[in-house]
Specification:
The complex is a heterodimer of chains A (about 280) and B (about 575). In chain A, about 30% of the residues lie in helices and about 25% in strands. Chain A has about 280 residues and is of the alpha/beta class. In chain A, about 50% of the residues are buried. With about 575 residues, chain B is α/β, with parallel strands linked by helices. Chain B folds into two domains: about 375 residues, Luciferase-like domain (TIM Barrel), CATH 3.20.20.30; about 160 residues, Jelly Rolls. Chain B has 15 helices and 24 strands. In chain B, the strands form five sheets. In chain B, strands 1, 2, 3, 5, 9, 10, 11, 12 and 13 form a nine-stranded parallel β-sheet that branches. In chain B, strands 14, 17, 18, 21, 22 and 24 form a six-stranded antiparallel β-sheet that branches. The two termini of chain B are about 60 Å apart. The chains are: A alpha/beta (about 280), B alpha/beta (about 575). Chains A and B meet through helix 1, helix 2, strand 8, strand 9 and helix 9 of A and helix 4 and helix 9 of B.
């Protein structure tokens, strides 16, 4: 990933922005250098310019919007479906004068990304789906978030039981995902999705549209994700024509948090067109 | 155990009211204060009188916590002010510098010190990669390449390297180091990848600012890799703990002061750059796998804590977290013995001037350490037999060429030119018959001196202790294409324009070529053909024998020589 890197100093620089799309305001963070990339969050909104943003910003100008309603903790009345969010995000690109962008969608963001690429394929360069919601099939139905209590939600989201050791300046740093800010925001997102879709994490009609996606697509999945099971990754991979799939070992629904180094190597290799094996994947 | 002194050179004059929200740019730096500070630090570090085994300095960049961005400079000063103790760097950020420059400086330091130098290297802190604006995902590869180049430059005569980041062709550093073999590098090794790298290269692994149990897990993993995977047994000398220490006879006073010193150090490290989240790329998700086996021990250091008469409070927490050890000599000794025995290190690096500690405090702390703590620590974790780190752990390294006794010497390898039938010097072939013999000759002519006065020399190196002379390849056939006989006499000589004496570079039989690999033999004696000299490659056979046809396509030669052109014009 060295050739096109803007460098760590550039990738750490970010600025907040705000765009008005119709009656709704979309707040976002942006930083990095290169072709534009839209990074759509999952159940938790971004909590700052985080490690995954920095990693992507080494190679792209990253736009990380907060879905309208995700900051206030209440889905706005103008949004009644996932397709509405897809239209909003396409309008956001318009507002920011981004003609074409790479699109990374995680979880709920992946579901929105699928609708974006179906609604406006000409606007999307490369597509990355990370433990994406969206599918609901007979053999592997979509999770209903309204049925999960706090413990069940955590167990569905994360492979880590106990302490996660992350890399820090002076070595390993212990993180407690169960009691950290991230999980609290995931719970807020759970409530939002229950309000929007009654808690359902997919829709039956989406599968038949996958064949219409022509963007070069990377499907990234945690091998122990119980919220959006690995079956869904396989269906995405076998139905999206120009797709490839990478499964990250030891990660659940949030590989960018549980395996950030592996996640970024996989995604950045795809973005810069580098064919380099990454450990702990298959 | 061997004991070394070390200092961070933390800037002492940060205003007390600054909070961590303030970026510590150099607006807060007084160079006058730094100048005074350098004098004090160097005085503290020159500790031979106290019996330390050596002194280490390190480098950091863009931070008030360490005003020593080029630690090779301070190492040079310390070398000049000491006579017997070792002086080391721990270390240079080798991935961010040209590795040959690092190798040259290490060799200089080794010569300056009379062979007392200890090399060290680090990858640098993420914040440093931010300010240098480098791609952190390249950090480990750059580090590995740089180490390989530096090690080769210090142990080999010539360095060739073809890497992803560096390409080196035939570099030979001056000076070369005094120590042979060059001692193993010291490096911090906390991640699995670094631990394996250190074990593979027999390096000295260092750890600091971590609880005892983290040190133990790192060093245990090194031992496991070395013994199980690599089949060698590291000694205590392969492991180093670095501890920040403050000692006073009054235990409570020392604890209180130590707390303030370390808090100041943390303040000085804080926010050197705009770095909003942990920087990715330095490690993998497997890097700290070895610490997960027993998370309680790793993060609470409970085993070490239980073994001690622990007191409550922040100072005790800092101590057990491996951050700051303060107290009276007895308490410090007790904790360090437990730390060293549990973690299993045979080198201890201690730093006394922590944070905003004063010169007087540092000197007193040193004195108490040397008097009461050091004698006891020396007795533990000693390697049996040869216990010096450089001897117990040194890998066999490549020998320098002057020691070569191999009879299978290579041909002269520094050629830059080939004489052949197609070379511009070749003017034609000649045939002469006399006294019952026929001599066929390729004739070559070195150009007259150029119009701008530039002289040329063609030098044919002869056999030496390092090579078997310049390669001469010769293939001869007769007119009908059949090989000529082995008795044919071959002569390579040069003759000057006036009364210069002829020089014979080779004289022998053709069978030497016919039987040699690639029809190639070495020149016997050095010859120098200057401007207007002729060079002749002659073959003489009896008149009745098959005569070589030098104009036949299969008759050819090549002389891999050195063409020396001195350009006088601009």
């Amino acid at each position: 990933m060295s050739a096109a890197s803007a460098g760590a100093g550039v990738a750490c620089q970010f600025s907040p922005g705000s765009a008005r799309v119709g009656e709704l305001k979309t707040e976002f963070l942006q930083g990095g250098k290169g072709a534009p990339l839209l990074y759509l969050h999952g159940l938790s909104r971004p909590l700052g310019w985080d490690t995954d943003h920095i990693g992507l910003a080494l190679h792209r100008r990253v736009y990380a919007p907060v879905l309208p309603g995700w900051k206030a903790g209440r889905v706005p009345s103008q949004v009644t479906s996932i397709q509405d969010y897809a239209r909003l995000m396409l309008a956001f690109l318009e507002e920011e004068k981004i003609e074409k962008a790479d699109l990374v969608g995680h979880s709920l963001g992946g579901w929105i990304a699928l609708h974006m690429v179906l609604q406006a394929p000409e606007r999307i360069e490369r597509l990355v789906l990370v433990d994406s919601m969206g599918l609901d099939i007979e053999a592997s139905s979509a999770t209903d978030l309204s049925t999960l209590d706090e413990t069940a939600l955590y167990n569905a989201m994360f492979a880590t039981r106990g302490v996660l050791v992350a890399a820090g300046d002076f070595g390993g740093v212990p993180l407690d995902l169960r009691h950290g800010a991230l999980f609290k925001h995931i719970q807020n997102g759970q409530q939002n999705l229950v309000a929007l879709t009654s808690g359902k994490c997919g829709e039956a009609s989406l599968r038949s549209s996958l064949k219409d996606i022509s963007a070069e697509t990377l499907i990234v999945w945690g091998d122990t994700d119980l919220l959006t099971p690995l079956d869904h990754a396989n269906i995405l991979a076998s139905n999206i024509r120009r797709s490839r799939m990478t499964v990250i070992k030891g990660a659940g629904h949030y590989p960018q948090k549980e395996k950030p180094q592996t996640f970024l190597r996989v995604v950045c290799n795809f973005l810069v067109g580098r064919n380099e094996p990454v450990e702990e994947t298959w | 155990m061997k004991i070394f002194a070390f200092e961070e050179l933390t800037y002492p004059g940060l205003p007390a009211h600054l909070g961590p929200e303030v970026r510590l740019t150099n607006r807060y730096c007084s160079p006058q204060l730094v100048a005074q500070h350098y004098k004090e630090h160097l005085e503290e570090l020159v500790l031979e009188g106290y019996g330390f085994d050596g002194i280490f300095v390190n480098e950091h960049h863009f931070t008030a916590s360490n005003n020593n961005p080029d630690c090779n400079l301070t190492a040079a000063i310390l070398i000049d002010r000491t006579k017997t103790c070792r002086v080391g760097v721990i270390g240079n950020i080798i991935a961010l510098r040209h590795p040959l420059a690092v190798a040259e400086e290490f060799a200089m330091l080794d010569c300056l010190s009379g062979g007392r130098f200890i090399p060290g290297m680090v990858r640098g802190l993420p914040a440093e990669w931010v300010s240098y604006n480098m791609d952190p995902f390249t950090a480990r590869k750059r580090f590995t390449e740089a180490y390989q180049i530096i090690h080769r430059a210090l142990t080999q005569e010539l360095v060739d390297y073809d890497g992803e980041f560096w390409n080196i062709v035939q570099a030979s550093i001056w000076p070369k180091p005094l120590q042979k073999p060059f001692p193993p590098f010291w490096m911090p090794a906390g991640s699995l990848e670094s631990i394996r790298f250190a074990a593979e290269n027999h390096l000295v692994a260092c750890q600091t600012l971590q609880p005892t149990m983290v040190l133990k897990q790192c060093f245990d993993e090194y031992r496991r890799i070395a013994t199980e995977d690599l089949h060698w047994n590291p000694g205590f000398g392969n492991f180093t703990g670095l501890r920040f220490i403050h000692i006073d006879e009054d235990h409570q006073k020392a604890m209180q002061e130590g707390l303030g010193m370390f808090s100041y150090l943390m303040l000085s490290i804080g926010r050197p750059v705009y770095n909003p989240a942990p920087l990715p790329g330095f490690n993998t998700d497997q890097s700290y796998k070895h610490r997960r086996a027993n998370a309680d021990d790793v993060f609470s250091s409970s085993e070490a804590r239980r073994a001690l008469k622990s007191s409550d409070g922040q100072a005790a927490r800092f101590r057990d977290a491996g951050l700051m050890l303060s107290g009276n000599p007895e308490a410090v000794t007790e904790w360090l013995i437990e730390d060293a025995k549990t973690a299993g290190y045979g080198n201890l690096i201690v730093t006394f001037r922590v944070g905003h500690a004063t010169h007087r405090q540092a000197l007193k702390s040193q004195e108490l350490f040397a008097k009461y703590v050091m004698p006891i620590l020396r007795k533990i974790n000693q390697d049996q037999g040869s216990s010096t780190i450089d001897q117990t752990t040194a890998k066999p390294t490549e020998v320098f060429s002057e020691g070569t006794t191999d009879s299978e010497l290579p041909f002269y390898g520094d050629f830059n030119y080939s004489l052949s039938p197609d070379a511009i010097e070749t003017v034609g072939v000649a045939r002469k018959a006399e006294n019952g013999h026929v001599t066929a000759t390729w004739e070559m002519q070195v150009a007259k001196i150029g119009e701008d006065g530039s002289p040329t020399q063609i030098i044919v190196p002869g056999r030496s202790t390092e090579h078997k002379g310049c390669a001469i390849r010769l293939n001869l056939v007769a007119r009908n294409g059949t090989p000529i006989g082995g008795d044919a006499e071959v002569t390579l000589d040069t003759i000057g324009p006036a009364d210069a004496k002829a020089q014979i570079m080779f004289k022998g039989r053709y069978r030497e070529f016919a039987q040699a690999s690639g029809h190639t033999v070495g020149a016997q004696t050095r010859g120098v053909a200057r401007n207007d000299y002729s060079i002749r490659l002659s073959i003489t056979v009896p008149s009745e024998a098959a005569e070589p046809d030098l104009e036949h396509d299969e008759s050819t030669f090549e002389i891999r020589c050195f063409k020396y052109l001195v350009t006088l014009s601009a």
